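Support case: user asked for a sample of complex input and structure output to validate their parser. Sending the pair below.
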Amino acid sequence: MYVAVKGGETAIAHSLDLIADKRRGDRGVTELSLEQIDQQLGLAVDRVMTEGSCYDRALAALAIKQARGDLVEAIFLLRAYRTTLPRFGDSVPLDTTSMVVERRISGTFKDIPGGQVLGPTYDYTHRLLDFSLAAAGERPHAPTAPVDSAQALPRVGDILERDGLLEPPPGRSEGEKAEDLTRQPLTLPASRPLRLQNLTRGDEGFLLALGYSTQRGYGNNHPFVGEIRFGSVPVSFVPEELGFAIEIADIDVTECDMVNQFAGSHDVPPQFTRGYGLAFGHAERKAMAMALVDRALRAQELSESAESPAQDEEFVLAHSDNVEASGFVQHLKLPHYVDFQSELVTVRALREEVEKRNRRAALDQAAE
Amino acid sequence: MPDTNIADGAYNYAYLDEQTKRMIRRAILKAVAVPGYQVPFGGREMPLPYGWGTGGIQVTAAIIGQDDTLKVIDQGADDTTNAVSIRRFFAKVADVATTTSTEEATIIQTRHRVPETPLREGQIMVFQVPIPEPLRMLEPRETETRTLHALSEYGVMQVSLYESIARHGRIAKTYNYPVMVNDRYIMSPSPIPKFDNPKLDRSPALQLYGAGREKRIYAVPPYTPVKSLDFDDHPFEVESWTECCALCGSRESFLDEMIVDDAGKRMFICSDTDWCERRR
């Protein structure tokens, strides 16, 4: 009985011991190190950092180890830690134009200044199980070209923008403070920055399905990949006592600039619109899905009809968070027997009334 | 126990940092000033899952001090798994005395029940709330329900109760039964059975409601009228049992039904374990 009249405390203690034991598994197998998780399960680390809103590879690796590879659980662990950290301030906005790219591609032009850089990607692998990976062995290093970190790659979007073909990204007025979803409740309608925060933290699977739905006609917005870039960017911060920006870190991010359906009217010359996606680490699926959903959520702003789920701000933003969703779905495991008892009492009473009515009807019929 | 090393000074008293506690206290003060109104607050990620009492835990963490005595119940019982877990959390992070006695407690955090023992002045009930919006199942949009509350436009709720009567011959809502607070706001009493609704009315204790996932706090100050919605010809009534408690013989408490064998034989016992033990 999971709700023992007495003894719940001991049962919980034993359950905790058991999960720790399961986590370790067969003691004859070498224990995973955080470095191994970071280096060899790097994309899992990237996802946990992105949806956990915390850029720390070691902590994310620890969370993955503690959660036995359950990434939603790991995201939860990282978030619960992050929430206790003090806040020193806001960084200077990232300048992704100055990114040192490992990968950069465009789906809109055959060639672009700086070139298409494939970098590491699964895109061209044949999905055949590589049985040579089943055994440990020496793996050769890949040849790489020297990196020119001084060269800033112009963005495809900037080039289109110059000709007025693409709407410029929204500006930020001087002194405007960035809102923080982890400190304030979400209020609706939400500003676009707040929406983007929500989407970056949002569950990859949820965004993927929503983005996909827009491609299948539920709020189509004719997307093209203007550009996807992955690489490292410096993070700058202005300490109050210094008054000027200093670089405090380099982080890896994936950015997707989606070029979408044009808008315009009789008087306003038509112009392509944009959807935007950004994630920590290498996460193209997430960044692209996010860009599709971001664009879908702009339906109202762009005077489009908004009838599909992906265009419904309240529906999307209220259900994107997997830590919230996982908790609430799984809370059904908690005892509900008081509520269920109330329902039982009522259903029994209602059934009794119906039976009484039926008996009376049968008697009346027999009497006729 | 391998679960946590929370007691070694790595975390602030009662887990939340002082800034966050102040923010929550401000929300609570506002909630007390406007009984039944849902105050948005910057809910934090807690080390327990959403849906398992994170709102109640944040409220308790913001108001608890070392002089307090905490009681935590789930389904009326002190020994249900989630109640044990939350009580242990506060014993660890707030170094606070805990009790199972309703009378001794200064703060009672609860899920789904109000204790049978009458509350007194100075006590605080903290309710864990899954869906704070009483109109949510009738209107899923927050932007809409906010307007309905602002205008006291509650026709949709009355219609839903009327439809229940039309279909079943009575109001078939059994828990989370909507109440009108201080003649102004319709409020969700959290999923307590309607049996407990009368205990909310003019209670000498302060009632605080915390919804963590939905990031809302609301309150009913002591001695505030709380009326369960009904109609003149269909007055509000609570559940009753033909059986009495098999352990203490109580006829006036909420009874849980237990199935004791494969033949479906049943036994009824008090849901409030403290109340039941006292009477035996």
